Structures are given as C-alpha cells and as structure tokens.
Amino acid sequence: MPHDITVYVKAAEDGHSRGDCPFCQKVCMWLQLKGIEHTETFINMKDKPDWFMDMAPAGLVPVVKVDDKVVADSEAIIDYLEKHTPAEPDLTCTDVSMDVCKDIMSVFKEYYFNEEANKESKKKVAFDRVMVELHEYLDSIQHPWLSADHPTRADCALIPKLYHALTVLENAKKYKIPPDAPEAQAYVTRAFKLPEFKGTAYPKEVILHSWAQKHKQQTHNHHHDGHHKH
C-alpha cells in the first residue's frame, strides 16, 4: 500500500483553490470513493512552476505522485492506483459502462460554440441524443449507477463532464434535459448529490468563467480566419 499520494490538479485563478478540470475531478472522486488519504496540490496552468515541469514534462494535469513514482493522464493514474491500492471497495467497471456518452464533450462544444442560427436546433438535438443515450443505457441495466449499485470508475469519468456540459448549456442556452430522458435526469440529480462529487467539485462560476474565456477565444479565432478568406 503506498504511503504518500499527492494529486497535482488545475488551480482556479486565485491559485489556492480547485480549478475546473473534469479529469482532475475524476481522479479525486475515485480516491475519495476508495477512502484513500491523499494531498491535493494546485498548479497554476498559466504559470506552471519549474519543479512541476521537471516532474511532468508534458505539463498537463492531473499528475499523481505515489511515493516516488510519478504517473500522468487520468486513465493511466487510475490504472496504476487500481494495481497498488486495496481491492475494496471495488470501483472497477464494465467496458461498456466506460463508453456511455463518450462523445459528450465534443457534442457539447459543437453546441456551445455554435454561432449560426440555422444550425442551432441541429446542435441541440445532437446533445439531446447524448442524454437519451444515457437514459436508454440506464433503463436497460436497472442499476442506479453506470456499472453497479454503487458508483464506480465509469461514474467518476462521466459525472464531471456532465457537470461542465450541463452547467454551461443551462447558463448559455437555457438547456434542459429532454423529457424523454427521465433516467438521465434522475442520474444527474443523484450524481450531483453524491458526497464524493460535492467534495471534489468547484463552483459553477469557475466553470462558466473558464468556458466564457474559451468562447471568446473561439469567436476571435473564427473572425480572424474570416479575415484571411477575403
């Protein structure tokens, strides 16, 4: 059993609190569900410290240091921790549960960044389909969570993405989960009440601020490209 686990996560703009990284939250949720003691260290992604770059040359978070072993990438981190921490509680999941809503972030971005009125309903329908996919999957397995009667690794991966997408779309597009996806709505309600979600989350304002900046950048690039075409 490792003695010393540190998770390096994205810092919010104040540098001292948790930033809005769904992959960092995935790892922290997994550790909390496992009941494994760990330390979180916040990394300012706009001004990464030299010691962090020396330790993790790719400069991406999350990174976990387990005793003297450094592991990057959220999936690789959980793979490593599964091998080196107690088997119970068992958070392993079925392969199929890891594939549920795997397009959620790309479909969300397409919808959120869309500036063309004639494409808006098509982009919304695509995101609705992701919610219906979640509904149909949950309806077919008869479990409250993606792979079991308790949250597993699959839930740790999906819930932070749902938090981002639904927070932003609700704010920007007044989006609501469609009525033909009641199991998806019930899952989201359950998920956002989960103590391990609440204990690793960041305020909605942090998500909205971060995506608003990305939107501004996207719009700027789009207009910039437009100038080159003329």
From TrEMBL:
Keywords: Detoxification, Oxidoreductase, Transferase. It comes from the Eukaryota. It catalyses: L-dehydroascorbate + 2 glutathione = glutathione disulfide + L-ascorbate. Residues 11-89 form the GST N-terminal domain. One of its GO terms (biological process) is ascorbate glutathione cycle. Residues 87-218 form the GST C-terminal domain. The keyword Repeat does not apply. Its EC number is 1.8.5.1. One of its GO terms (molecular function) is transferase activity. The keyword Transmembrane helix does not apply. It is an enzyme of class 1 (oxidoreductase). It holds the Pfam family GST_C. PANTHER family: GLUTATHIONE S-TRANSFERASE DHAR2-RELATED (PTHR44420). Belongs to the GST superfamily. DHAR family. This is glutathione dehydrogenase (ascorbate). It comes from Salpingoeca rosetta (strain ATCC 50818 / BSB-021). The lineage of its organism: Eukaryota, Choanoflagellata, Craspedida, Salpingoecidae, Salpingoeca.
